[in-house]
Amino acid sequence: MSTVRPAVPLPLVIVAGCIIAAIGFGTRGAFGLFTLPVTADLGLTREQWGMAMAIQNLVWGIAQPFAGGFADRYGTGRVLAVGGLVYALGVLGMAFSTDALTMTMTAGIVTGVGIAIASFGVVMAAFGRVVPAEKRSFVFGIATAASSAGQFIFAPVGQGFISAFGWQMALVYIAVLLLLIVPLASALRGRTESVPGQADLPFMEALSRAWGHGSYRLLVIGFFVCGFHLAFINVHMPAYLVQCGLSPEVGSWTIAVIGLFNIVGSLLSGWLGSRLPKQLLLASIYFLRAIAIAAFLLFPVSEVTAYAFAAMMGLLWLSTVPLTAGLVTLFFGPRYMGMLYGIAFLSHQLGSFVGVWLGGYVYDATGAYDLVWYLGIVLGLASAAIHIPINEQTDTNFTLKRA
Q1: What's the rounded mean pLDDT across residues 225-247?
Q2: Are 334 and 199 in contact (CB under 8 A)?
Q3: CB-based burial of residue 74 (10 Å sphere; 0-12 exposed, 13-18 middle, 19+ buried)?
Q4: Which residues contact 40 (CB under 8 A, 6 or more apart)?
Q5: Which residues of 201-216 are buried (b: 16+ CB within 10 A; e: fewer)?
Q6: CATH class of 10-387
Q7: Which of 256, 210, 4 shows the shortest CA–CA distance to 126?
Q8: 123 with 21: CB under 8 angstroms?
Q9: How far is CA 360 from CA 85, 117, 119, 385, in A?
Q10: Entry's InterPro entries (predicted)?
Q11: Which of 288, 340, 275 minimizes the C-alpha distance to 134?
Q12: pTM of the full structure
């Protein structure tokens, strides 16, 4: 598979892309810290806040294929710069929201669009364009690890902002930090060019051919579960730990520990992905997630068990991403990576929508999160089974030109 020469030196592309991924994902990862202060101050139910976050994940997923497609066609730098502006606007709007409707519009719709346009999915599309094929899984792992580093940094920083300035000013400061994406995006300018021997297809035809690939369908379906796990834990875990008698600071550091250990998990996943079958690695990750959740529920909740669970989930958190992105690029080549990974990510975000909303609904209905935890175990085992039959084989519909 061919690559193109980047507009700036490759190391600078990777560094700038990783910083963008860290800022964008770190901000998103800190939203769970706002659950208790926002619902208490605005009088929102847990389900109303969960719905705003769920819509954010859904909008992110719906917009992701289009963001990836625009990046493939018009250039990643331009797309990321616009995304940084929209993302900052959405977070700033959250600070001035006064009820469930305005919070849903700002936190849900505007922020969701901004996250999609400035996401690490678009960053990885840029990496897939300029990084040699044999190094892509590892570089995808680096980008994912950078996202995790952002979560590790932003969780305690976000909690510190909330404690020192209140949740509204904390969001204002975070919005200012998001504007750093705009100048950094210039290092990732350029777009994916057609390469000899590879099909150059319209959006819908490329999507139709990709969906005809059985292994791609399984990959997309399985990615739903990843989103369910991540979004539920990210948004509801801090509140769950407070419910169990722990402090909000333990909740913030739990999210930070997930981010810290995810750096290791993402790098290890990217390294292993270039040496072992990616589909079997993915099956193992989902199986181990189910085991980790079951073990967490078996023991009384304490700071020790919370941090131990966070460490285990951190190793498995975004380790699915370099493997999933690697399989998409292996199936179809870098030409359509932004769009077709975006379709897979839409499934991920549908799972995120269900996980966040269901967590709030179940809590309001039962006063506990137990049912959602149990469902997470079942879905983890199901996703592990779905990934086993995936075949690492390039789709010839994308390596041959149309007649």
Answers
A1: 90
A2: no
A3: exposed
A4: none
A5: beeeebbebbeebebb
A6: mainly alpha
A7: 4
A8: yes
A9: 30, 27, 25, 28
A10: MFS, MFS_dom, MFS_trans_sf, Proton-linked_MCT
A11: 275
A12: 0.75
Q: Are 95 and 172 in contact (CB under 8 A)?
A: yes
Place of tokens 């940094």: 153
Question: d(Cα 311, Cα 12) in Å, to the nearest integer?
Answer: 31
- The per-residue pLDDT for range 342-397, each reduced to its tens digit, is 788 889 988 988 998 899 899 989 989 999 999 999 999 999 999 999 987 765 55
SS3 8: coil
What's the rounded Cα separation, in Å, for the pair 111 and 174? 12
pLDDT in tens, 170-179: 999 999 999 9
CA distance 226 to 219: 11
Average pLDDT, the chain: 85
Q: At what angle do helices 35-42 and 214-243 cross, to 10 degrees?
A: 70
Q: Which of 20-29, 100-109, 235-244 has the highest mean pLDDT?
A: 100-109
Alpha helices in 179-247 (DSSP H): 181-184, 203-211, 214-243
Query: In degrees rounded to 5, what are phi and psi of residue 274?
Result: -90, 0
